[in-house]
């Protein structure tokens, strides 16, 4: 197996609820994402997948989150849980990228898609505007956005959901991240578009030699492109292993149930 790029160890997250009670969202979970690998984090809605991704990005709300002090999230040798706000922000702009279910939650509606990628490249890659524009057209071409020379001037709402997600992928890989966290990136899309976006993600993973943590409630969609699977249930990991093992010889009754739900 490749070296771990990300190592989550005993991650335990509680939320303080309004009535003062604690909700145990993550009950000491441990898993790794090796270099140059796609790991699927799978589980039904409410199992703690997004809380995990937010913890990895240092984005859990400060007001009511309690992270156990023995928890560790090692990325490239640093414990993410110990980083300063500034260091975290830098990490999110460079080595770790993310895409979410709703591209419109990340795309700014008042700027053209081109400008959003250009600004990202100028800020994080120190490119001149001219070089950033040329690279943006290359990236939009790479993610299959039709007519990138013109579409660079489009506003997010002028694109379809699938095209917006392509733009998000272009923006995510623009800074050549080591890890891309994709939280249900295809859930809001039609089935045929879903498949195209999954294929694009798989292509980008290989071409850019990054790792992908692909989060989904649908075990079926990961079969063709994930290398490893982590199955989550009620804030715990009930099973993890290679894609072959999980699909051919699942051990946990919950994994078997997820597999039986496949169309
Ligand atoms: P999913 O696996 O669907 O992504 P989430 O990780 O979003 O699930 O949520 C896991 C559980 O944690 C849910 O019950 C959710 O209501 C709860 N939760 C998430 N964020 C908070 C929060 N900030 N405060 C309280 N509960 C939360
Ligand atoms: Mg979620």
From TrEMBL:
Annotated ABC transporter domain residues: 6-259
Family label: Belongs to the ABC transporter superfamily.
Protein name: ATPase component of various ABC-type transport system, containing duplicated ATPase
